[in-house]
Amino acid sequence: MSQLTPFYNTYRCTGAAAEDAEDLVLLHGWGLHSIVWDDVMPALLETFRVTVIDLPGMGQSPLPADEYSLDFINAHIEAVLPRKFHLLGWSLGGLVALALAAKIPERIQTLVTVACSPKYVVADDWLPAMPAAILDKFSEIYAEDNEGTLIRFLALNAKGSMTMKEDVKKLKDILFFCGLPAPRALREGLGILRDTDLRNTLAALTIPTLMIFGEQDQIVPVAVAAEIEARGYPVKISIIKGVSHVPFISAPDIFTEALREFWQGANVT
């Protein structure tokens, strides 16, 4: 496997804990990069030392010439992870986080996923999900129009939110800030979303875990939350009203309050 180091940055805690603060790692979603967290970063830094990582081929991270899979992504980001840390992943980054929780649970103190499902596409035993044909169509269109497909996907991220226009504008600004992601990372990243099934991983979690959903999410339907609760998976659920797939952009204050409540319950803050 190629040993190219992903881009990452670590920010000092601004709160009372300062140098003694615990570590929090943030993982972004498909097509974007770590600047997506900027609106909530000041609140997070009040409690934690925060490390942001750009997934391979996205943002400022290089793309090694290996098969693009969850194992591939985790193998590359493990090298820059703190020894022990809290983990927060959004969308594709949530799947990466779940896979890490199965691989190195002893290093992860708490886990938060945002707008993430253990299985993104519908199946006979998993109905609250996106039809596989939608992701396949994105892949097909992407081959013809890279930039246009990214823009359409960003619009889908914000569709249904009370702040949709503002959210789409902000997502576009973030997208172009570091230049467009590597095409192969995007194509094969869609494949990860289409093919991954981490329901058994979710069911076996022993780490304190919160899953945050947007009430109007068009990519991960809020019905996923009810399905997870019905199956008795060992996680806490938070649903943020009036937002879609990017609650940390649409409602940063409500989002960070949900995090605080979870971490307080887990004796973190």
Describe this structure as you would to a colleague.
The protein has 269 residues and is an alpha/beta fold. The protein has helices spanning 41-45, 70-77, 92-103, 132-144, 146-158, 164-177, 183-195, 199-203, 223-230, 247-250, 252-265; strands at residues 8-11, 23-27, 49-53, 85-90, 108-114, 209-214, 236-240. It has one domain: Alpha/Beta hydrolase fold, catalytic domain (Rossmann fold, 3-Layer(aba) Sandwich). The protein contains 11 helices and 7 strands. It has a 7-stranded mixed β-sheet with strand order 1-3-2-4-5-6-7, sandwiched between helices. α9 links the parallel β6 (209-214) and β7 (236-240). The chain is globular and about 50 Å long. It starts with 7 loop residues before the first strand and ends with a helix. The model has no long low-confidence stretch (mean pLDDT 94).
Largest sheet: 7 strands, mixed
In CATH, the homologous superfamily goes by the name Alpha/Beta hydrolase fold, catalytic domain
Provide the β-strand percentage band.
5-15%
What is the mean predicted local confidence, pLDDT? 94
Q: Which fold name corresponds to the CATH topology? A: Rossmann fold
Tell me the name of the CATH class.
Alpha Beta
The gyration radius over C-alpha positions equals 17 Å
N- to C-terminal separation? 39 Å
CATH architecture: 3-Layer(aba) Sandwich
Protein structure class: alpha/beta
Number of domains: 1
DSSP helix fraction: 40-55%
Number of strand segments = 7
Low-confidence stretches: none
Strand order of the largest sheet: 1-3-2-4-5-6-7
Taken in chain order, the helices and strands follow as EEHEHEHEHHHHHEHEHH
Form type: globular
Number of continuous helical runs: 11
